[in-house]
Write a structure and sequence with these properties.
This protein has a four-stranded antiparallel sheet, covered by helices on one side. Strands 1-6 form a two-stranded antiparallel sheet. It is of the alpha+beta class. The chain is 56% helix and 19% strand. It has helices at 2-21, 23-52, 54-64, 84-95, 100-108, 168-190, 197-208, and strands at residues 69-70, 73-81, 115-122, 137-144, 147-157, 160-161.
Length: 209
Amino acid sequence: LYEEFEDAELKSYFRNELEKTNEEYAGTIGEYREGLLIFEVMNNNIWKKAKKDTIGLQEFYELKKENYRWQERVDVALVSATSQKIAARVQDMFKNKMTAEAIKAKLFEEEITLIVTNDTLEIDSTILPEKFIAKKGVSEIYRDENSYVVANVKEVLVPSIKDFEDVKGRVTTDYQNLLEKNWMQRLRSSHNIDVNKKTLKKIIKELKS
């Protein structure tokens, strides 16, 4: 029993003294502590602040909202078929005012499977077929790899500024970057930075080796 106690105490002692006796371990622990410290400082001064500062975030958006714009978009129903013949039927059904869902249900009765997409898409969206023309109404038949696609464009939307809620994540990131930039500038202006050139050369030499 005493030997077990002695063994446990020795292990505990060496764990506590390891940072003093093992240079590599001490370096790893130091980097870990510094990383946690930097994270805490950045979190308090930038990340958390940006999320909580709803007024500042909204003001930043208003100031920079020209940077958050939609391209030309289409409110469109797309139907993808496995043959040009089926796509031609879809085209006729669209022209007869049938919805994409109604077309899919009708042809499903004939055991014909279609892929339907209803969405508002920017003109360069990969969902749209190649060489797509943004024009209101029923489109031509587009060949898209192994499919034939017909589009029913309900509306063509001109380029516009995105609503704040649509780009909140991106605005938050940009606002954080601004806060970080301003914070770093304040630190530089309020602190004198002295570089030990001898140590710097030594570090550069070690990194190159």
